[in-house]
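Quiz preparation item.
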């Protein structure tokens, strides 16, 4: 009889664990395979902390060089949103966000002038509460 109680308790505990989400966030990668975020050492390090907050990494190409822009929004406070642009070696090229003084705005414009947006390659966002339910 005790064995049956233990078995039932074990099954209930297992079902409870499986029904809980392991993270409040969901990560999407494009491309799913051979993504730079999984293959470049400094981006892998960034990914560890970024996978616990809303953010996205966009790939840019300018003058034959690759750049990675990490955008981190601040919910309810657009003036605190931060974008940091890194070169392919992981060095910060540009950091900006929110209400910028004219000199910073000009630097941002100059960087993006002639830069080609290759798209979002990695995004972490809050898991929707009803994500497991089918959409109508």
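Solution:
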């Amino acid at each position: 009889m005790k064995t049956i109680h233990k078995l039932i308790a074990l099954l209930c505990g297992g079902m409870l664990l499986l029904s809980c989400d392991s993270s409040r966030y969901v990560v999407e990668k494009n491309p799913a395979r051979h993504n730079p975020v999984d293959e470049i050492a400094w981006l892998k390090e960034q990914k560890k902390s970024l996978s616990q907050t809303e953010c996205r990494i966009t790939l840019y190409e300018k003058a034959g060089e690759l750049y990675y822009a990490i955008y981190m929004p601040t919910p309810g406070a657009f003036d605190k949103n931060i974008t940091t642009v890194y070169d392919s070696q992981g060095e910060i090229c540009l950091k900006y966000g929110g209400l910028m003084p004219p000199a910073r705005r000009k630097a941002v414009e100059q960087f993006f002038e002639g830069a080609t947006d290759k798209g979002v390659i990695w995004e972490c966002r809050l898991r929707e509460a009803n994500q497991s339910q089918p959409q109508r």
